[in-house]
Amino acid sequence: MGRALYQTWLRTVQSRPNQTAVREADGSSVSFAGIQEAVEANLLRFPDLEGCRNRILAIQFENSSRWLEAFLAGRAAGAIILPFDPDVPPDGLNHILHQVKPAALWNDSGLQRLPGSRRKGPACLVKLTSGSTGAPRPLVFSDEEMLADGEQVCRTMGIHGEDLNLALVPFGHSYGLGNLVMPLIQFGTPVAVCSDPFPHSIAGLIARTRATVVPAVPALLNGLARAGIDPETVASVRLWISAGSPLQAADAALFHERIGTPIHNFYGSSETGGIAFDRTGRETLSGRSVGQPLEGVEASISGSGRLHIRSRAVYRRDNPHRRGRIGEHLLADLARILDDGSISLQGRRSRMVKMSGKRVNLGEIEKQLLRIDGLEAAHVRDYRDAGGRTRLAAAYSPEMPVELVREALRRFLPPWKIPSKWLGLEKFPLNARGKVNTRRLETLIGQALDPRER
Description:
Helix content: 25-40%
Number of domains: 3
Strand content: 25-35%
CATH topology of the largest domain: Rossmann fold
CATH class of the largest domain: Alpha Beta
CATH architecture of the largest domain: 3-Layer(aba) Sandwich
Radius of gyration: 23 Å
Structural class: alpha/beta
Shape: globular
Largest sheet: 5 strands, mixed
């Protein structure tokens, strides 16, 4: 199974050589055979790729056929791919390269060999976790695990070769790999690249390409709902998918009202690939759950209330919880399994703090804040007051009088769970993937505290 993913790609090319694989942002298109010709040209052009066999190869390209050509050429050479978002600044890139020590970096400047790399053994891909919480932790995935994730996602969502995916999320992110890259490699599902992530530009691209599947993040979907888009412009889309960060039920309802179709929530993690999907869109509208497990995914609840996942897509290398071809992972998310098998998230275990001997779930307070009419986002963190005692600080969006927010929260929580410090923001800071930039947000909260409490 060392290069099963690349062999799968070759079979897809053979079955549809002249069909369009990628519609580029400039309106041009590249066929499956055209991408393969570029892959083979890359192998000849960069003989150093052979030196990356069983070593990490970092690639950093914008969404385009070039990303796919580099990814597939690396796998053809036996390299383990480490994808970087194109917006990672040089200092951040160099910091991670120093920690992970790939054999080479491939970007717009060409292929650059790097010193100090080590052989890792056969593998397909490295995902970096922890982003805003500290040093990146590399997770190594096999071809088999990547193919399993693609199969489970496509089978559950009904994505097939006659669909056209709209590429709004980065190819190299877990979400993009499972919903854009793997469907193209395994089932020949073409993608249309979008370089202008503004609502009317997205709607125009959908109208021109007749895209049928749109994986997106809540911020983009909210923008579309509020932009006054003519629903007929995007009528070709049969499946709107939201992932990457929580989508509020009120936002899903607004989208349904204005666009006329439901949003389907998709939930997963870097360690496990896809976990759950709202097949009807009704769970997303109600906010009751994140949907039912994907086909091939088993979900259960541990004794501590955390979500436990078993599937062929869960990483197994350096994972003590694995059984044969099945990987297991215990998430930090607290959850309940409802009567119909749907997964209802209850917060994160890692965000429990103690106040005066009592345990407080910060996620619970955020959930109650979002019950307040008008609030779209909330974040709670702990801090030490001038006397060294643990207190809570909360940020919320959009801005409104703190007194109104505090009084409304008192309807849902006891006084000791009410945050002591408040910060109203018009919008929460986001990263390029549309997720809340937690590090930046907590910095803003810290700046609002008394200097003795930071």
